[in-house]
Amino acid sequence: MDRCEPLKEYSEFIGNGILKDFLTNNRNEVRSMSLFEFDAEEHEKAIKQIAYEEGELAGYDKGEEAGAIRGRTELILSMFNSGKTPEQISNFCGLDLKEVEKIIEQSDGNSLDN
Question: SS in 3 state form for the chain?
Answer without folding.
Answer: CCCCHHHHHHHHHHHCCCCHHHHHHCHHHHHHHHHHHHHHHHHHHHHHHHHHHHHHHHHHHHHHHHHHHHHHHHHHHHHHHCCCCHHHHHHHHCCCHHHHHHHHHHCCCCCCCC
